[in-house]
């Protein structure tokens, strides 16, 4: 389906100014440009154009509230200055599967001051020596590159799902996964041994009885 027609269908009789999220994956642009999207989409926050035959972003309209963009699996090789100009508030950007080869191609993203997460999976740029260090140096505003921060800590599911601005790495994930569970187990053991409330003592007694039965078996 052509991109212009797909966007029209996705409107579902709504006014473009009312649309906050637009997904037009797997449609086709007739000339490699963004089609059917206009400056009327003033409230658009999420725009997904995965596998849409895009080779250029030069016709991208002004989308001042856009926070997240998916351009995965297209043939974009440059012209990213358009993103910084038209979508200045982007926080998350997925450009994986495109024809991005050089660091100079993503240099315009320096102007996206709020950009916290960038994905370049399956782009040739990922084969460059010191790829990750070079990108983080070029784009110091980034928190996550390809789903991991500079310390190779994976983006927490809560932040990835919410699409919200990321906090400082480590704020919510101090220690490796599972540490909190161990702490909880220790606290439960303490409760079993030293709790004073009747309900807690009863629970402790039952649990101990269960342990004794298991040991006999």
Automatic annotation (TrEMBL):
Designated name of the protein: Acidic leucine-rich nuclear phosphoprotein 32 family member
Cellular location(s): Cytoplasm; Nucleus
GO molecular function terms attached to this record: histone binding; phosphatase inhibitor activity
Annotated region described as Disordered, given as residue ranges: 154-217
Similarity comment: family membership: Belongs to the ANP32 family.
Cross-referenced Gene3D superfamilies: Ribonuclease Inhibitor
Biased composition (Acidic residues): 170-201
One CC-aspect GO term: nucleus
Domain U2A'/phosphoprotein 32 family A C-terminal: 128-146
Keywords: Chaperone, Chromatin regulator, Cytoplasm, Leucine-rich repeat, Nucleus, Repeat
Extent of the signal sequence: none
GO biological process: chromatin organization; regulation of apoptotic process
The protein's role, per its UniProt record: Histone chaperone that specifically mediates the genome-wide removal of histone H2A.Z/H2AZ1 from the nucleosome: removes H2A.Z/H2AZ1 from its normal sites of deposition, especially from enhancer and insulator regions. Not involved in deposition of H2A.Z/H2AZ1 in the nucleosome. May stabilize the evicted H2A.Z/H2AZ1-H2B dimer, thus shifting the equilibrium towards dissociation and the off-chromatin state. Inhibits activity of protein phosphatase 2A (PP2A). Does not inhibit protein phosphatase 1. May play a role in cerebellar development and synaptogenesis. Multifunctional protein that is involved in the regulation of many processes.
């Amino acid at each position: 389906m052509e991109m212009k027609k797909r966007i029209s269908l996705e409107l579902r009789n709504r006014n473009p100014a009312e649309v906050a999220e637009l997904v037009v994956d797997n449609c086709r642009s007739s000339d490699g440009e963004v089609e059917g999207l206009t400056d009327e989409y003033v409230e658009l926050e999420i725009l997904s154009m995965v596998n849409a035959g895009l080779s250029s972003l030069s016709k991208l309209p002004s989308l001042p509230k856009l926070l997240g963009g998916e351009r995965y699996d297209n043939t974009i090789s440059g012209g990213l200055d358009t993103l910084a100009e038209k979508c200045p508030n982007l926080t998350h950007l997925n450009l994986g599967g495109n024809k991005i080869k050089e660091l100079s191609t993503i240099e315009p993203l320096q102007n996206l001051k709020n950009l916290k997460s960038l994905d370049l999976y399956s782009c040739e740029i990922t084969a460059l020596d010191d790829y990750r260090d070079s990108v983080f140096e070029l784009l110091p505003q980034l928190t996550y590159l390809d789903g991991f921060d500079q310390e190779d800590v994976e983006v927490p599911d809560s932040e990835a799902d919410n699409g919200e601005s990321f906090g400082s790495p480590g704020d919510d994930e101090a220690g490796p996964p599972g540490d909190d569970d161990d702490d909880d187990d220790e606290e439960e053991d303490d409760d079993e041994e030293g709790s004073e409330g009747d309900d807690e003592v009863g629970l402790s007694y039952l649990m101990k009885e269960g342990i004794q039965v298991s040991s006999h078996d």
